[in-house]
## 1
Amino acid sequence: MASIDDEPRLLAILSISFFLSCIFVSSTGLVAALDDSALLASEGKALLESGWWSDYSNLTSHRCNWTGIVCDRAGSITEISPPPEFLQVGDKFAKMNFSCFSNLARLHLPNHELSGSIPPQISILPQLRYLNLSSNYLEGELPSSLGNLSRLVELDFSSNNFINSIPPELGNLKNLVTLSLSHNAFSGPIPSALCHLDNLTHLHMDYNRLEGALPREIGNMKNLEIVDVSYNALYGPIPRTLGRLAKLRSLIIRDVRISGTIPLEIGNLTNLEDLDLSFNIILGTIISQAVFP
């Protein structure tokens, strides 16, 4: 037990410790403030150098009020969605340094006459949840690094000029609800890895050049409500596993090259409202009470 004579020494030690802790807390807060300031400055610089908002180029301090820009309370940009009637991004798409937007959650740029390939920086946006680049002139292959966007809920690349195979890494997007790749020039098989997307409800792959059979594993995607793979070069039988998709409301496999009979398991789809298997090589008879309960 400390004596009375030791009390001044203990008080001095405690005072010094408290003082040092205050310095540490203050310096930590200062570093955080500097980091936030640097982040906001880099976002403003990226907007300025992109040339997208040329009429606002000297007012980056007011960027949160720009059309198509949404910020959080700290002033960091969380959404970039300029309406195409307000500005056309066009060939300036690649001029944006997307790596500066660490808090970006929504990138919405349909109908902006975008050209070229997808900028690689988009694949490292840690907070991105909604990515819509539909109805543009983008081309080339989809980068496999898109599979790193683990928070992504919606991915829409429809109506572009993408080619070659669909990267199986998209199967890593476990939070994905909507996947729209229709109206492109994708080829090769549908990756079975996509069947790991347990939360997916909408799957659109129509109007491509996809080949091979529908993967049997599609029956594992229990939340699917809409599937459209029409106007491709698919072949083989209709998977019986489709009968497991109890939530399915629309199944469109029109004008591909599937063959064989309609599996009786389709009759398990009691929520089905739209079934289109036309312009295929369907054989046998339809047992109405089994297929349409």
## 2
Amino acid sequence: MLPSRRHFLATAATVAAASKPLSVRLGGPIYLKSDDPRELAREHRRLGYAAAYCPATELKNAAAVEAAFKAENVLIAEVGAWKNMLDPDPVARKANLDYVTSRMALADAVGARCCVDIAGSFNPKVWYGPHKDNFSQQFFDATVENCRRVIDAVKPKRAKFALEIMGWTMPENAQRYLQLIKAIQRPAFGVHIDVCNAVNSPEKFYNNAALTEELFSKLGRWVVSCHAKDLAWTPEMNVHFIEVIPGRGELDYRPYLKALTAIDAPLMLEHLKNADEYLEGATYIRKVASQIGVTFA
């Protein structure tokens, strides 16, 4: 039987809607001092942000925070965990995992897109520092176990648990992230993209547009949130990249922004010193977007 005209039109409309470029949700930290989630949400909108880092809150207040931000059409992008889930000290490791689990629970309760952490490090002095075993099978297996533990403890219904890409620890590239996704085997495990963090060589520094395209072509279907910053190269006797305000470095934002129009993932400014620097970074990103026809929510 041939499909009816009504069925054909409905299907065509669905396909067209799915292929229509999305408006990007840009976000970043704010400097308003307030405990009122409604005021905080409005401040994001005043700054032109449609995405936010989760404000400091407790689990019991999650519903009020979610409602306040929804009323202003501001997506809560991330609940940061930022603890070393692979701390060499077993007591500290357990405490860190418990904390990350509590943050995952908050992310799901507040309707955040994700709870994000790094996989961790075996470095005993710097929780995010380099270590010779950070690319070992032991590291990989422990990371799989940790992610499963966090997800299985919370059983999130909305938020994903994601690991931020890092240049000197897993997941350091798209292929490693795919390996983790396959090994973890949890629908609640998502992908967090930070292109600057994936730049760990001169080749990637100068070919960062291709790097961005590879990350999104391989991982796009799982991406839940992204970070925005820039990288510059400080000439020294060895390779030394430094984070700078977007627009002052070499990162090509054109493929980054174009990729985000195909998926529903926010772009979050981070690691800048003050409100003026965030304004400069946001202004630059908006300028690039306007040049390539990308709009913001």
## 3
Amino acid sequence: MKVILIRHGATMGNQEKRYIGITDEALCDTGIEKLLKNVHKDIYPAADKIYVSPMKRCIQTAQIIYPGREAVVVDDLKECDFGRFEGKNYIELSGDSYYQKWIDSNATLPFPEGEDIKAFRKRCTEAFIRIVKHAKDNEIVALVVHGGTIMSILSEFYGGGYYDYHCGNAEGYICEVTQDARIISAKKVL
């Protein structure tokens, strides 16, 4: 089966380089414009089924890419809760000693007052397994989610490092996936 992993369009927080996890931001005008240009260029493949994170930015993105289509909301596809880092950018966090420790750990330490990165990755990968198990072998399934969700899924089921799969807003991957959720190919879109 084919699985399309699409990161939501840009929000104001994304443009300001903020950690936006549980903050339920809508798309900004620039994010909407980029998505509409991509749709006009026919960048995104058609999908038989569409799954989305419950966050506004993902739901809006799915509505732009797949207008008039029903999307299944999957709570476990949400972005990580960045805790004390939520809503801040690296400049605002530069004086925070724990932030520097977190950076030095290659982002493996838990987010203070937030979600443990291992628990986040497990939540995302388990949701992916459930979605794949419900799909038919010849279906095309789209997931409109977050950057961290995409990185979690690809690093777990395709191999490589977590940050190897970073993609920009409105970008993503087209994957060939087996029924047991193994990703056998992943091609970056855009």
